Amino acid sequence: MSNEGLRASIEQMEAWVADPSWVPEADALARWHTDFQAALSQAEKGHDWADLMAKAHAVGQQLDSLAVRFAGFRDEMKAELEAYERGDRALKGYRASAR
């Protein structure tokens, strides 16, 4: 057996994370995860194992950073939508009392 499948999976994730325009897609991530798990289950813990694990952990940390960033974007959007909703309710209340 070879670790080439595992290396390819890790390198795919590294490429995605390095691309600033990358937008995670659920289907692509699910396929990647399936392929990664299959490659991991067949991997040999040979001479290149430590290097592969270091690469995997590094890209995992990058993904954690991205997740925090995306959560921040989500929270900002949620706050903005809530502000619009409050403004909408205020306008409706103003219109009702102005009649």
What does this structure look like?
- The protein has 99 residues and is mainly alpha-helical.
- It has helices spanning 4-18, 26-42, 49-98.
- It is rod-shaped, with a radius of gyration of 22 Å.
- The N and C termini lie far apart (79 Å).
Summarize this, please?
The chain has three helices and no strands. By secondary structure, it is mainly alpha-helical.
Attribute tags:
99 residues, rod-shaped
Sequence of secondary-structure elements: HHH
Taking all Cα atoms into account, the compactness measure Rg is 22 Å
The description of the largest β-sheet is:
none
Query: Which percent band covers the strand fraction?
Result: under 5%
User: What is the straight-line distance between the termini?
Assistant: 79 Å
Look at the helices and sheets and give the structural class: mainly alpha
What overall geometry do the principal axes of the alpha carbons give?
rod-shaped
Task: Report the mean per-residue pLDDT as an integer.
Answer: 89
Helix content: over 70%
Number of alpha- plus pi-helical segments = 3
Which consecutive residue ranges, at least 5 long each, have pLDDT under 50? none
What's the β-strand tally? Answer: 0
